[in-house]
Design goal:
155 residues; alpha+beta; OB fold (Dihydrolipoamide Acetyltransferase, E2P); five-stranded mixed beta barrel; 5 strands; 27% helix; 26% strand; extended
Length: 155
């Protein structure tokens, strides 16, 4: 076999190995590609205790209970199903009832999660000042003026 033939065979084998590795990686990650699950998806899936996942939704109105200074319990809802969450730590400043959250933690029981992180999301009206300015220049801005607190001023 010539040098050119050996080189082509080596390149072909390397490409086959890379393709197999990529295929196996995508196959392994097929169930966890989404950023978070909704409470309805959690209720529909058979999850065992100890499974780690992220749940996103709204903090259910009237569900926030603070038994002590560090622990908080609340329900995350998608208006269809609820998941009870227990979190020990300091919640973000934007955390409140009716606000969007993403919680990450471990399933303790069906529809019960022990969270180790809570992320509060901005509402849908949030718009960084730079984006709002760009939309105004294009003539497509339809919202209210962005507050000066939404984005720090650039020097």
């Amino acid at each position: 076999m010539s040098r050119k033939g050996r080189r082509l065979m080596l390149i072909g084998i390397a490409l086959a190995v890379v393709a197999c590795a990529a295929g196996l990686t995508l196959f392994a990650l097929r169930g966890s590609v989404s950023l978070f699950m909704t409470p309805t998806e959690v209720a529909e899936r058979p999850l065992s205790a100890g499974a780690r996942l992220r749940i996103g939704g709204l903090v259910k109105e009237g569900s926030v209970i603070k038994p002590d200074a560090k622990t908080i319990t609340f329900a995350v809802t998608d208006t269809n199903k609820d998941v009870a969450v227990t979190y020990t730590g300091i919640v973000p400043d934007l955390f409140r009832e009716g606000q969007g959250v993403v919680v990450e933690g471990v399933i303790e029981a069906p529809s019960r999660l022990r969270a180790d992180s809570v992320l509060a999301k901005h509402d849908e009206n949030y718009m960084p000042r730079e984006v709002a300015d760009s939309l105004k220049k294009q003539g497509v801005w339809q919202g209210a003026e962005p507050s000066s607190k939404s984005s720090p001023a650039r020097p």
